[in-house]
Amino acid sequence: MPVSKTLDEKLRRLRAGTATRRDFILADAKDGDMAFGVTTPGPHASGRWRSLEDYRMQIREIVRERLVDIMLLSVSNLEQLAIKERLFADSPVTPAARANDTTDIWMVRGGVYPQRPSRPFRTAAIEHILHGRLGSTAGEPVTGADLGLYSLTFTNEVERDLETVEAFREFRIEAEQKRFRYFLEVFNPNVGTVRVDQIGEFLNDHIIRVLAGVPTAARPLFLKIPYNGPAALEELVAYDPNLIVGILGGGAGTTRDAFQLIHDAQHHGARVALFGRKINLSEHPLTFVAFLRRIVDGEIEPAEAVRAYHGELAKLGVKPHRPLARDLQRTPVARKPR
């Protein structure tokens, strides 16, 4: 009998209004190779960059420990781990793949793409995510993933944003036809055309506006957005109680930054967190994720979790990136476009 997926169980309870604090959905974003290229796995002690196999080993470890509900991958890593290795076959973790890669996430060395208005683009084909190839037959079992992340970046420039919503419409139609599920990521503008104090409102209005014309059959399972402060998050959550709102992690920062972010976002209504670099660039990802789970389950407060995390690093013989006193500090948040 197939192992039930914790994502599906938690979504059912969230939609039924019977969810508890422990139904918070935690995801690990290991799709960074679609943004950062060679530097994705992070630095190695030798001074070089870690390898693709190092990256995949971290994915295997987190999935096997059942620490997250979703593992987000690039299609190439999904093919290797889900289709060839069957890593998720007997796991409660749901695999997912990044379904598009807009130009604002082309964060290559020497590149300037993130400083230009975002343009829509999709490397991945839905059939490649589902089956690892084109030409599948109706009713063919999914061997890859039936879940993807689709991202939008609005720039307040009409021609660019029109391209963005047209591409999203095409994706939604194809996804519905292929019975492919997705969750929707909406980034802050990547160029400075929106007043800093209006970014949260700008994002909220675009999310509601773009989903207002979408029926249930084509809507995302949940949202993934930047945490633009408690007021913006609470406004979005209050507007539509059926909309499950999640937050993204962003850059690495201190350990306190990560632990406080997930704590505060949950307190103000988020029900999902998807962290990528915060996990990948931590000293010991398995232990780091374990503390994220303890925080959202209400077992430990952020500051206490930082101290306990450092204690675990000492037991493991792992040198922390920062002294404890520094790691307990929070990095000032600069409210600006990405």
The low-confidence runs, each spanning 5 or more residues with pLDDT under 50, are none
Fraction of residues in helix: 25-40%
Principal-axes geometry comes out as globular
CATH class: Alpha Beta
> Could you state the oligomeric state of the chains shown?
single chain
Domain count: the total is 1
End-to-end separation = 45 Å
Order of helices and strands: HEHEHEHEHEHEHEHEHHHH
CATH topology (fold) name: TIM Barrel
Biggest β-sheet, characterized? 8 strands, parallel, barrel
Named CATH architecture = Alpha-Beta Barrel
Instruction: Count the DSSP helices.
Output: 12
Give a structural overview:
The protein is α/β, with parallel strands linked by helices. It has one domain: Aldolase class I (TIM Barrel, Alpha-Beta Barrel), CATH 3.20.20. It contains 12 helices and 8 strands. The protein has an 8-stranded parallel barrel, surrounded by 6 helices. Helix 8 packs antiparallel against helix 11. The termini are far apart. The mean pLDDT is 94.
Q: What topology emerges from the helices and strands here?
A:
Blueprint: H1 6-16, E1 25-30, H2 52-64, E2 70-73, H3 75-84, E3 94-98, H4 126-131, E4 147-153, H5 158-177, E5 181-187, H6 199-212, E6 223-225, H7 230-239, E7 245-248, H8 255-267, E8 272-275, H9 277-280, H10 285-296, H11 302-316, H12 324-327
Parallel strand pairs: 1-2, 1-8, 2-3, 3-4, 4-5, 5-6, 6-7, 7-8
Helix pairs in contact: 6-7, 8-10, 8-11, 10-11
Give a nutshell description of this structure.
The chain has 338 residues and is an alpha/beta fold. The chain is 39% helix and 12% strand.
